[in-house]
Design a protein that fits this description.
The structure holds 2 protein chains of 2 kinds. Chain A is mainly α. Chain A has 4 helices and 2 strands, in the order ααβαβα. By secondary structure, chain B is an alpha+beta fold. Classes of the chains: A mainly alpha, B alpha+beta.
Chain lengths: ~140, ~140
């Protein structure tokens, strides 16, 4: 039975992608903490990750055997890259706790803690991936 | 890749905040400047920040783009009238003995300075953390 690396790694690569996009959105919020009228945003993580997972399921159900129409992002001929997780449609505006008079809804403390939390989860996903790879290395080298 | 965009975003934030710190420094330095006419007195300066989307978002809606860096739209001068004080001994005094001082509010400038430096620190922290995440990602599978 051939090993499908995508299914072997599970949801972690998709999670990494969504985490990194969320980090970008939170960084934009923090950078615009003093911009008048800027509305803070965040990613609907559950929906974004579910969409990423569906992409992955589609890749997996495309067949366990090697197929020419692989959806690897390295394949230049891939028509629909499975790992291209676009989270822009999952962007939501934050409900402000205390909007300021200039219309800015960024709460630096909230964004800062969300950013830290997001980073810890990113690191956790990295650790899971690391374990997966070291398992694979053990299986190969014995 | 999304993480590398953070360098642009946080960098633009730091650049904007340093412009703000510059105006604060200029305002504080000129807080005690006087002039012989109300019009030529120093006016406090403030930068105007604006969010800047570098890429069109989903469906061409710029608000849907994930990245929003900051740009300094321009510098505006405060329109608050300055104070006139009677100081006939001052060589800059006008015919009736008044000098016109700047409209800089020192307390407000100090608060502005702290706000700018906090925001700058936040951006620098974001930059540092993202760099660390990218380095960790690069080291994936090497240990």
């Amino acid at each position: 039975m051939p090993l499908n690396l995508d299914t072997y790694l599970g949801i972690q690569p998709d999670a990494l992608e969504v985490y990194s996009q969320r980090a970008e959105v939170l960084a934009a919020n923090l950078a615009n903490a003093d911009t008048p009228g800027y509305l803070a945003r965040d990613i609907d993580f559950r929906a974004a990750l579910a969409a990423a997972g569906q992409d992955q399921d589609a890749t997996a159900s495309a067949g366990g055997e090697l197929q020419p129409e692989t959806t690897s992002p390295l394949d230049v001929n891939a028509s629909s890259p499975g790992n291209d997780v676009s989270t822009e449609q999952y962007l939501k505006y934050r409900v402000p706790l205390a909007p300021s008079l200039d219309g800015n809804t960024v709460d630096s403390q909230m964004e800062e803690s969300a950013f830290a939390q997001n980073n810890v989860r990113y690191e956790a996903s990295l650790t899971f991936l690391e374990d997966r790879f070291s398992d694979l290395t053990t299986a190969i080298t014995g | 890749m999304a993480l590398s965009n953070i360098f642009n975003i946080a960098g633009s934030g730091m650049s904007a905040e340093s412009v703000r710190l510059n105006t604060v420094a200029s305002n504080l330095a000129n807080a005690d400047s006087v002039s012989n006419t109300p019009g030529s007195a120093y006016k406090a300066r403030y930068p105007v920040f604006q969010a800047l989307q570098s890429s069109p978002g989903a469906g061409g809606d710029p608000a849907a783009a994930a990245d929003a860096s900051v740009m300094v739209r321009g510098i505006v001068e405060s329109t608050t009238p300055g104070t006139a004080s009677y100081d006939p001994g001052n060589p800059l005094a006008d015919a009736s003995g008044y000098v016109y001082s700047s409209n800089v509010n020192v307390v407000e400038q100090m608060a502005d300075m702290i706000s700018a430096s906090r925001s700058y620190q936040n951006d620098a922290d974001v930059l540092n953390t993202s760099k660390q995440l990218m380095l960790d990602t690069l080291k994936l599978g090497q240990s």
